[in-house]
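Retry 2 of 3 after timeout on previous attempt. Resubmitting structure tokens to design endpoint.
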């Protein structure tokens, strides 16, 4: 290698000269020129030969009496330039041929002759200057070739032919315009078709059209605070750019539907006063491939114009997963891993493992569905066009800037910095392409989850503040507690349904009863209005009373929300529970309590109906078995520690593995052992449920009577019946009376006899007596 010393043209006094070592490649001593293919060696010679014979043929065509030999002699004088070019090309090919066989000859021309010229030009001229000189030389060469050819055609000198060319072009202009017109007619047809197909799906709102502000977004304060940072960067970008950073230009909001993602994007546009462009989820799903690409390019042209005009623009892609699904979910498919089959909220998962171990686990874990591509959304070109627009090189603006300045050898002006804030929303982030989520395109990813209790309370206060109501602060806090997974959309809908319920009753003020009725309608749906006969009504009430009593006794992480025996679309009766607080982990004791509540129906029916049981317990047994299986095989809450999911996938966990019948026998043995452990756990919990119901037999009948009387009970009323106190709608003090309890037992025995004989119940349902009168001084 050769090292050259470069010194700057001028340096400040006292500054030592900077030395840069630039490596220049030098051919090895024994290296020769790479050999050319036969076509590359002879293509120009063949072309010049063809030109020569064309000129000879043209001379013979002008004078039919001219023989071929005379035509050649005449053209050798008239077209001597062709012979000269042929000779030069022949010398060049001979030069190449020698360089391919003689290393010294090749090294001399490459390093000494042309290498010296290149060193001279690199030292004297900048790269941009060399480029302009070379381009001017190429233009001059083609102009000279055109002048020579035009001179031959016009039978004049090349210089005069250049002046004659505009006149000939003007004469041929009508014919050329006809061709151009026909060409544009054909092009306009396709342009019009594609333009028409690429319309729609993109709505632009000017700053005055957006009235939403951050004060209208309730329950997501932690996300709003982080989004406000992006607004600062959008409004004052030089603060971060002056320090060497770049302005984050992309935000992904992901979370369950209805949590306020779209509302946040509107609030960003309203706070900044910039235009807001809403992109419909189906805007890029088109009949023809390529339309989506045109839409993406048209969209970003509009965004750049708006950004320059208003100083910034916000574009919102709703349901971004429909744009181009190439993520983990789209590739593995929903069956790539049995979702929810053995997952529980983990501590850190595999985050504490090395990358290699995580890759191995992922490969083994996803082997069932790997490689399947679910596709969906827009065509692949649409996604690639979007990726290019989000982070691709920005072209200089304007036709004159891009082409005219470059034509005259001038550098185009650099493109301006477009202040475009891209906000995307989805409830399936795993379906998005990783290339879309990388920094530089989507710089910040925020989860917009279910609001906390404080967020739900604030949201209820906001929406109830828009209607007339009688709810107290304690009741609103209670409502936030009993709706643990309510989103902004569901809260707004519940408030609206409560108002409709009040208006239907002829009132303008919403009461607590209206809210509870609306909540029951939204959570359970409207009842079917089916009337049970007395025997089946009592059996359904006892069934649900057993669930309610065991839930009240053993559950501490949940409280009863509603109990009903009104038949719905998918149930005969129901006891629904809700969390008492926001909870993100669940314990073994809580799962066991859930199993006890599920098994209470089977235990109660056997106890109250002489060992008989109905098919109505099938759903309860299914849920109990599922939870017990997960506890024993996956969650480490059983008698073993290993995970049954991993053991099944890897073929370990029981002796005799290795393939064939031995492996099948081992798998069967492992499953049998797991089934035995599950059955033993369920049997033990069933016995516990039987003991709880036997100790509270009178209270079970009391809750059953209240259900038969009122059909639907709120959670506070169920607790009031069990505790024998007054509730919001039901007075449970009557069930503490021993005489009334004996009436309930007699009615149950009559219902049991009717059940055995398939006859009507001979006793009427005991009527609710007046509650006992207490001293006003002692009444709570």
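Retry 2 succeeded. Sequence:
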């Amino acid at each position: 290698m050769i090292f050259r010393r470069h010194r700057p043209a001028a340096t400040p006094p006292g500054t030592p000269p900077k030395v840069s070592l630039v490596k220049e490649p030098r051919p090895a001593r024994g290296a020769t020129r790479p050999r050319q293919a036969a076509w590359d060696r002879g293509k120009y010679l063949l072309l010049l030969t063809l030109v020569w014979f064309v000129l000879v043929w043209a001379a013979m065509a002008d004078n039919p009496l001219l023989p071929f030999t005379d035509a050649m002699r005449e053209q050798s004088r008239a077209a001597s330039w062709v012979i000269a070019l042929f000779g030069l090309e022949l010398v060049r090919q001979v030069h190449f041929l020698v360089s391919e066989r003689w290393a010294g000859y090749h090294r001399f021309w490459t390093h000494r002759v042309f290498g010296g010229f290149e060193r001279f030009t690199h030292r004297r001229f900048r790269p941009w200057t060399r480029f302009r000189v070379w381009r001017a030389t190429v233009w001059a060469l083609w102009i000279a070739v055109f002048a020579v050819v035009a001179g031959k055609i016009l039978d004049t000198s090349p210089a005069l032919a250049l002046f004659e060319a505009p006149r000939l072009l003007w004469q041929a202009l009508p014919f050329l315009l006809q061709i151009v017109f026909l060409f544009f007619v054909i092009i306009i047809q396709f342009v019009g078709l594609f333009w028409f197909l690429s319309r729609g799906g993109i709505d632009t709102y000017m700053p005055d059209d957006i009235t939403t502000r951050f004060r209208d977004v309730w329950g997501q304060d932690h996300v709003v605070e982080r989004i406000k940072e992006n607004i600062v960067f959008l409004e004052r970008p030089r603060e971060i750019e002056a320090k060497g950073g770049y302005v984050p230009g992309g935000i992904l909001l992901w979370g369950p539907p209805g949590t306020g993602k779209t509302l946040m994007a509107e609030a960003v546009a309203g706070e900044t006063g910039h235009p807001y462009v809403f992109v419909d989820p189906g805007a890029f799903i088109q009949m023809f491939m390529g339309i989506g690409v045109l839409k993406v390019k048209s969209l970003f042209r509009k965004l750049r114009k708006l950004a320059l005009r208003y100083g910034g623009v916000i574009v919102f892609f709703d349901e971004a997963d429909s744009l181009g699904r190439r993520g983990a979910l789209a590739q593995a498919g929903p069956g790539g891993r049995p979702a929810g089959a053995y997952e529980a909220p983990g501590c850190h998962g595999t985050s504490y493992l090395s990358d290699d171990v995580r890759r191995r686990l992922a490969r083994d874990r996803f082997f069932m569905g790997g490689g399947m591509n679910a596709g969906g959304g827009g065509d692949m070109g649409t996604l690639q066009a979007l990726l290019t627009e989000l982070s691709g090189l920005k072209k200089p603006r304007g036709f004159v800037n891009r082409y005219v300045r470059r034509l005259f050898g001038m550098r185009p002006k650099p493109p301006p910095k477009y202040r475009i804030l891209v906000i995307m929303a989805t409830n399936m982030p795993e379906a998005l392409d990783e290339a879309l989520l990388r920094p530089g395109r989507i710089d910040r990813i925020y989860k917009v989850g279910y609001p906390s209790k404080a967020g739900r309370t604030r949201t209820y206060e906001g929406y109830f503040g828009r209607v007339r109501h009688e709810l107290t602060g304690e009741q609103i806090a209670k409502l936030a507690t009993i709706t643990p997974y309510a989103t902004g959309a569901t809260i707004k809908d519940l408030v609206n349904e409560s108002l409709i319920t009040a208006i239907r009753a002829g009132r303008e003020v919403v009461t607590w009863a209206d809210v509870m009725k609306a909540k029951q309608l939204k959570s359970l749906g409207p009842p079917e209005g089916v009337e049970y006969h007395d025997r089946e009504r009592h059996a359904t009430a006892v069934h649900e009373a057993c669930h309610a009593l065991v839930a009240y006794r053993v559950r501490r992480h949940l409280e009863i929300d509603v109990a009903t025996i009104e038949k719905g679309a998918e149930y005969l009766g129901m006891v629904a529970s809700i969390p008492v607080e926001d909870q993100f982990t669940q314990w073994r004791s809580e799962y066991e309590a859930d199993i006890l509540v599920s098994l209470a129906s089977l235990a109660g029916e056997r106890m109250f109906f002489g060992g008989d049981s109905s098919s109505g317990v099938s759903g309860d047994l299914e849920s109990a078995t599922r939870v017990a299986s997960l506890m024993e095989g996956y969650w480490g809450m059983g008698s073993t520690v290993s995970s049954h999911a991993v053991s099944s996938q890897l073929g370990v966990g029981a002796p005799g593995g290795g393939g064939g019948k031995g492996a099948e026998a081992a798998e069967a043995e492992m499953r049998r052992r797991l089934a035995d452990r599950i059955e033993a756990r369920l049997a033990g919990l069933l016995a516990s449920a039987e003991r709880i119901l036997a100790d509270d037999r009178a209270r079970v009948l009391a809750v059953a009577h209240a259900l038969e009387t009122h059909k639907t009970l709120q959670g506070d009323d169920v607790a009031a019946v069990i505790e024998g106190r007054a509730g919001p709608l039901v007075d449970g003090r009557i069930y503490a009376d021993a005489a009334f309890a004996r009436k309930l037992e007699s009615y149950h025995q009559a219902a049991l006899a009717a059940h055995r004989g398939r006859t009507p119940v001979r006793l009427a349902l005991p009527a609710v007596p007046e509650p006992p009168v207490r001293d006003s001084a002692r009444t709570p």
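Attempt log closed. The chain has a mean pLDDT of 78.
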